[in-house]
Amino acid sequence: MAFNLSNAQHNKLDALLGDLLDSYKSGEFTKAQVVGALAHVFTAGVIDNEGEVKAWLEKPEVLQRWKDDTRS
Description:
Low-confidence stretches: none
Mean pLDDT: 95
Oligomer: single chain
Helix content: over 70%
Number of helices: 4
């Protein structure tokens, strides 16, 4: 079963994608690292893991934790 995103959540998805792409563009993370993060969120959506997708969209600390973990 599919789940729905609100307009606000779509905007947050745009921001998440932009942040990750900017992180690659700036050299902060490699293409493989950013693709891995995007694939994680995409796969969560495909398997209807609504909580995981929305956590990435609604909780800035999730992206920050990924960045911190990926840097180390």
